[in-house]
Design brief:
This is GNAT family N-acetyltransferase. By secondary structure, the protein is of the alpha+beta class. 33% of the residues lie in helices and 28% in strands. It folds into two domains: 101 residues; 139 residues, Gcn5-related N-acetyltransferase (GNAT) (Aminopeptidase). β8 and β9 form a beta hairpin.
Length: 270
């Protein structure tokens, strides 16, 4: 890791932790954020997000634990979400403490999903975009018909039903900003992506970006990143955040994104 990258990580990782994790806000009506303290400790030990219902996102976003408090905190979160009858996710980051927190979560019954890279870019530092490749137009999702197109593109990209994704996109139609976008080849949806705004922070999160296999490698993913970056900048945001898979990470690195570390979802089924 070169010096510039080290300096970037040193500056952005504490900012990300403070704004996007410790200071996380509820993601919609009816959802809530709870900050848990423990006797004998000063300040918050666990920050958890409780969805409006079982279909919402439930999980631990941030923790400040050590070897003496970790097991008790894990047990308390398991008992809490079990009382709600909900599965939940402990979103673990590579720099979280104690160092053996992954082992402790597995011992408590959590199952790890694939690790992803936590990647961030300053919007102002992105290279200029050249627009979508020839034969592709980008269609902002502003109504139910657009949601149908986005879901169809995602199902082609991932080869599985995306009905839960449909509900999320329908809920996002209430935003004043078109948060999802579909790449169209004529009348055929071939790729789709969305973003989430985080008011009170400098970050916008990018999600999705799935492209139909026969359309990969043509610059569609890159065009979707630039499209969302322009919208984010227009609304005063300064940074983009992605939980990147192994497939998308090289594209993001070529765009100037820096890996701040790793993140792994640990899932607990009640």
């Amino acid at each position: 890791m070169d010096k510039d990258t080290v300096d970037t990580v040193a500056a952005l990782l504490p900012l990300y932790d403070r704004e996007m994790r410790e200071g996380v806000r509820a993601d919609g009506p009816g959802a809530r954020v709870e900050r848990v303290e423990y006797p004998g400790r000063s300040g918050t030990v666990v920050v958890r997000h409780v969805g409006a219902d079982a279909d919402g996102w439930n999980g631990v976003v941030w923790s400040d634990l050590d070897e003496d408090t970790a097991d008790a905190a894990i047990a308390e979160q398991v008992a809490y979400f079990a009382s709600l009858g909900r599965e939940f996710e402990w979103k673990l980051y590579g720099h979280d403490l104690p160092a053996d927190l992954p082992r402790r979560l597995r011992a408590a019954g959590f199952v790890a999903e694939p690790m992803e890279a936590l990647m961030v870019a300053a919007i102002a530092d992105l290279p200029a975009g050249s627009g979508p490749p020839e034969g592709i137009r980008l269609l902002p999702v502003t109504d139910a018909a657009g949601v149908d197109l986005a879901v169809a593109a995602q199902e082609r990209a991932f080869g599985e039903s995306r009905e839960q994704h449909r509900k999320l996109l329908l809920d996002q139609l209430d935003s004043d900003v078109p948060l999802a976008v579909v790449a169209m080849a004529g009348d055929v949806p071939v790729s789709a992506a969305r973003m989430e705004l985080h008011p009170g922070t400098s970050f916008v999160s990018l999600w999705g970006g799935g492209t139909a296999p026969e359309w990969r490698g043509r610059g569609i993913y890159r065009a979707l990143v630039h499209h969302r970056a322009r919208l984010a900048a227009e609304h005063g945001y300064r940074h983009l955040h992605v939980d990147a898979s192994a497939m998308s990470r090289p594209i993001l690195e070529r765009l100037g994104f820096v890996a701040l570390g790793t993140t792994t979802p640990y899932v607990f089924l009640p």
